[in-house]
Amino acid sequence: MKTAESILNRMTGIRKSQKKFMIILFKTVLALSGRVNFSNLSRYSDLNEKTYSRNFRRHFDFTHFNSLGIEQVYNPSHEYLLAADASYIPKSGKETYGLGKFWNGVQSRSMKGLEISNFAIVDVNDKTAYTLKVDQVPPSNDEENAIDFFLSQLRSLKEANLTIPLPRNLTADGFYAKQRFVDGAINLGFTVISKLRKDANLKYLCQEIQNSGNPPLPGKRPPGRPRKFAGKINLKSPDFAKLLLAKKINEHLFLYSTVVHSVALKRNIKLVYVQHTAKNGKTSYVVLFSTDLTMSAETIYRYYTSRFQIEFIFRDAKQFTGLTHCQARCQESLDFHFNMSLSLLNLARIDHRLQNKQSDESFSMASYKRRYANEMMLELIFSKLEIDPNLHKIQNVYHELRNYGVIAA
Fold it and tell me: Which terminus of the chain has fewer CB atoms gathered within 10 Å of its CB, N or C?
């Protein structure tokens, strides 16, 4: 992994032995099949199971490591977002750190296990997301405590040693659309783009011109406080005379927008009412918003849909880099495992981007891992049989063998 080696060589305060271990770890996870745990890692490398267990308890600055990696593919001319999301991690046992009940979106219910919170940078132009910081969420029955944890994570990210500029537009799903989080993020200098409930309490702003500053006429009562709101918005059947048609995405999707007041957030927001009409004529809607009142409806819609790239991070990490496979129970090992899994996915995406600068070949983690495993096996066979890989006959078939079993060669 030349990409990983170049990043590790730029990091300071890290021992040579830890650099060597990280290279072996990344290579082994990409090459192995089955679960990513200490036992299986030792089967695919020369390191002992206890060596993996001991090194997983050592501190490693994954946030700085990730930023150095993203820097290699960072394009100043592209649009970038900061996306936030949490993911459920199944885990059994009684002594595991952070064990509690968390929301499992697949099962649509709270289940016993763990949860991680991820802040990722989304390249809007390339439609790719890279993990920047991931932490394990402590168990709590109080929703406000969870919000405080996400804010503390965001605050520490802003203070972290990053080598790339941190985006100021923060996108998150509807769970984060709460006054406590929105106010905290704004105080940290971020613009929040999120989704509201379909029954959100919103009010139209009064557009009447108030007669202020003029003295009252003789015999007339002085004017009272100017009206601020012009009624509540019925999201199921809104008044489209007060919502401007901002964009027609296609013949089935329309964006309506205006500035409204959110009672729950206690602030004015830029509302984007996304209306979809199915082929059978049935309509549905989604309510998006931004705390930046000058942001266009199309930009809000484009940014929020780009947020879904973070979901692909969780999907690929769970399927290919063993995000849910950790057999350890202590906080340090769990934190190391979660970060390692997501950082390895970063490395694969960055490496793919660097190797395909001139092409638009889509990224497949399944193909990347299969190709890397084939390379490792070929190297092992060549070394055991003392075959020179530079031979003409070998070079003729190497590409075919390297791409054996990949989805798209």
Answer: C
